[in-house]
Task: structure prediction
Amino acid sequence: MNKSASTDGFAAALSQAGQRIDSIIGEEPIDAYSQHAEWSDLAEPLPTTGVGIEATLKELHERVAPYGTNQSDPGFLGWITSGPTVAPVIAATTASVLSPQKYGLTAFNFLEELSLEWLAELCSLDSGMKGVYSTGGSVANLVALGAARQFAFTNAGLDPSAVGVDGRPVAVYTSTEAHHTIARSAAVLGLGRRSIRSVAIDERQRMIPAALEDMIAKDIASGVLPIAIAAAAGTTNTGAIDPLREIGTIASKHGIWFHVDGAYGLVGSLDERVTDRYDGLKLADSAIVDPHKWLGAPVGVAATFVRDRALLFDTFTQEPADYLEGSLAADGTAQSTFEAMGTPYSEFGVELSSPPRGVQVWAILKELGIEGVRHRVKTDNDFARRATRFAAEHPKLEPLTEPELSIATFRYLAPGIDDLDAFNHELMLRARRTSRYTVSSTVVNGVFGIRPCFINVRTKTEHVDEFMNHLVATGDEMLEA
Result:
């Protein structure tokens, strides 16, 4: 066995991998589970003697690669992630080899901060907002709400990162449409899931400010400590944008931390047709956005922005470690790469070991610029409007929402069927199983709806039309059966 084969010669291996990836993306997608016989026997005892790099890559390309989810296929419309584009994949691959950690006085650490500044500008955040990358919206929300917890308890005379929370009743306010990571963050931060206050929504699935105000007033009167108000700039279910200015004004009035979960939709402000719905964003104390969603980065890239990054330091700073701090030069005296951490992102979040993620975002924004991203956003929003218009004009379909961003929701109207929810659930499954199109579902005002999310850069107009026609044809076949 050539033991150097797996450590040298990236060019040939990456070229082979790239060709295989391109060929799979260009084919009709394979449902991995239905073909499980092709890969389930990968189970074998741990090898005593390795087979070498060539045999390993051959098995990877032939028996593993074709049997994933292929979210790069243009028919993948299911969730708010899709296959990444080329530039960030190459950037991530380059970084994984040449700068495995994002720390040190390196170009990668420099691009971490530069890309955060670019991303904040792209999303029209306040110019003073500073950020940190993490793995996704779950951790990004956790980091933001960690800062909110630090802010609220410190103002109440307690340092929670040093001594913990003291058991007093607390509240985090968000809408009934909020992503479940808000509740999970409250649990992990010691605030408890029961601290979540679910505020009612209006007919457009947006938080009702008057209901929020009433809830806060009652809590304060009963001695509850408000921790944060978490609004959505594009909910996962329908893409709804909460009334940010009204909510932010309420937060300011009561001195409560104002967080905006824009994991999916923050980039949507680039579409001039909906920019006004982001009015009030600059009131936010924190906001998150996931570049692995609309920007097309590989999964595992999210950003948390805060108005005061010192609060992140107070919340997440580590105790000194001899092996680390002892290896660094005194402040201001570093003369080589490993004598300083660069921007100390390990003090601003929950990760120490962490790859450079900013280089991926830098590559995307360098390639596309603001106008390229704007075109992508508007195209996807147009697809959602096109699908909704199709549903509105078709006698057998009914739209459930009017899209604000790139998510459409509708259902098939089946005459003579008592349980339309069950029928549409089966329709979604059958349409998925009999075509290349993968969609998901949601519930709107108590009604089950089919939910395509148009965020896939490879999706074209013809795919939207083909999917909608296939859905109707599938529903018709179910009625005739």
Remarks:
- The two ends are 59 Å apart (CA to CA).
- The mean pLDDT is 90.
